[in-house]
Design goal:
2 domains, seven-stranded mixed sheet
Length: 297
């Protein structure tokens, strides 16, 4: 019996499209495509019945209030044949070079990689993270630079918060980081990340957990590519899991939101040491303030 699918489209402009896409990916557990006119995603008819429209309408209404839009966000949808949604979605996901050595390639494409390249084969499925978004690229580029500057990278532990498709955890593993743990509060994301980790032969190097930021373990590097509001809420929890000489890397932050994020992490005892911007998005790097680290000793 063939599955039924709904193609849902939301007309909006960047950077709203990026923010709404992340909200939809979290709420529905689906992959979301950014198009020239807005957002497109697909729902399996057997999985989402009558209540999906109410859920989406509520999500869009709350978002419009949060960003103070002058007009409401709307959506349109239509049914499509089984298989057509896959082909349409795949058209926009091609192999991508990130940084000096990373090549992110979908499973259905052949990547043109050189002998020094690090290839991440990925099928994002219902999780968020393909490497094409600015925030993911900023994180991969930072990881690459950290690995190049760290002679003992194999002793450097890393926590990937909100691992999504697992792309950052896999990138860290390919770069030679030591203990790598990816966590997410979405079981679908963990399922997708696990499949990607196995696909890349990294099952022995990346641990995946359905978990929150609370925990007893401490890490040399914590990286979180989520969104500004969740990052602000996690500030104290993330700071507690950072080793004394560790670095905390945050992305998924719009440029106009960075001061709010910075304030939250300063309050948690950290200070900013680096910042990089790509378009409307930025990456922030923090470490413990010296007086805090000394008091902890």
């Amino acid at each position: 019996m063939k599955k039924s699918w709904l193609c849902v489209e939301i007309p909006c402009v960047s950077p709203l499209a990026d923010q709404i896409a992340a909200e939809i990916a979290a709420a529905f557990g689906v992959g979301v495509e950014i198009t020239d006119s807005g957002i497109r995603f697909y729902l399996e008819g057997d999985r989402f019945q009558k209540d999906w429209a109410d859920l989406l309408d509520g999500l869009l209404s709350e978002f419009a209030k949060w960003v103070e839009l002058d007009s409401p966000l709307t959506f349109d949808y239509h049914s499509i044949a089984d298989g057509d949604w896959t082909d349409r979605w795949k058209e926009g996901f091609k192999p991508l070079r990130v940084g000096r050595h990373f090549v992110v390639s979908p499973t259905w494409e052949e990547a043109a990689a050189g002998p020094d390249d690090l290839v991440i084969r990925i099928d994002p499925g219902r999780a968020f993270g393909t490497g094409h978004h600015e925030t993911t690229r900023l994180c991969l580029e930072w990881l690459e630079k950290r690995a190049a500057s760290e002679p003992e990278i194999d002793s450097c532990s890393l926590l990937d918060v909100g691992t999504g498709s697992g792309i950052l955890a896999m990138g860290a593993a390919l770069l030679g980081f030591g203990r790598i743990v990816g966590i997410d509060n979405d079981p679908v994301a963990i399922e997708v990340a696990d499949a990607n980790v196995r696909l890349n032969g990294l099952a022995g190097k990346v641990q995946l957990r359905l978990d929150t930021v609370a925990g007893p373990d401490h890490f040399d590097v914590i990286i979180a590519n989520i969104q500004a509001n969740p990052l602000i809420a996690m500030a104290e929890g993330l700071a507690k899991r950072l080793k004394k000489a560790g670095q905390l890397v945050l992305s998924g932050i719009l440029v106009e939101q960075k001061e709010q994020v910075k304030t939250a992490y300063q309050t948690a005892g950290l200070h900013q040491i680096h910042e990089k911007t790509d378009g409307e998005w930025c990456l922030l790097v923090f470490e413990r303030r010296r007086e805090v680290a000394q008091n902890d000793e």
